[in-house]
Hints:
By secondary structure, the chain is an alpha/beta fold. It folds into 3 domains: 11-86, Arc Repressor Mutant, subunit A; 103-160 and 251-277, 3-Layer(aba) Sandwich (D-Maltodextrin-Binding Protein, domain 2); 168-241, 3-Layer(aba) Sandwich (D-Maltodextrin-Binding Protein, domain 2). Helix content is 36%, strand content 22%. It contains 10 helices and 12 strands. It has a 5-stranded mixed sheet with strand order 4-3-5-12-6. A 3-stranded antiparallel sheet has the order 10-7-11. Strand 1 (56-59) and strand 2 (62-65) form a beta hairpin. It is elongated, with a radius of gyration of 24 Å.
Amino acid sequence: MSKNAQAELxxxxxxxxxALARTKTLSAAARALNLDRTTVSRRAEHLxxxxxxxxxxxxxxxxxxxxxxxxxxxAAERAEQELKALDTTQDPxxxxxxxxxxxxxxxxxxxxxxxxxxxxxxxxxxxLQVTTSDRFVSLNRxxxxxxxxxxxxxxxxxxxxxxxxxxxxLYRRADLAGPVVDYITHPGRETIPEEVRAAAPDAQIxxxxxxxxxxxxxxxAGVGAGILPSFLGDADTRLAKCSVELSxxxxxxFLACMPEQKRLHRVxxxxxxxxxxxxxxxxx
Length: 284
């Protein structure tokens, strides 16, 4: 072999690598491939030796990708998807580009349900898997592919698509009039914020509730006034604003994914689609 020659990439090891990266254990990868654990382990080790870099960290029985391993995983998935797209023998009803996982806060789901349905209709070759949680999911650990989040600051080290800022107002039931006297807060907050006190100087806390959607429903039930994002409050005809903007533009809506993941066809399609559809939510 000449000085500038390189060893061939062990393509035959990639299915084993992909299975182990996705399932994180030898047993699960072996079941997915209908093989034994020893074969999966041997092929993964062979790939590492061939690449000359560590691609897995073995932590308490789990195989977690290293930063280099994530780059290999992204490249391997792109190659896998391109090959699937060329396969004219597969069932046309199958999702040629696989699954893309989207994590979002539950407060966004009512406003996004039609948008997500539209994505499914216009991108039948991608299976969208949605999880609703306010927990901070780890993109680094591949707990999701894309995260839709709201924060004062956008995270570093990720591919971030900013959608604009969200505005918040005090809302109450639309058929109520006069000064606001009853206020709904969140658990652990025993005082009324100054910005709310300025809009409702006579207000007193009557209840606390965890979550934006329960807050909306309690306001609609007439329990009291509460703070909601404008995209949620304005869309509900049962509610009416009763303050000026409260958030001062501090909260920004954004999509985030790993930089190497965004190069995946399925992930890029979802980010591009959502960035256009959700631009209406944020104020630039």
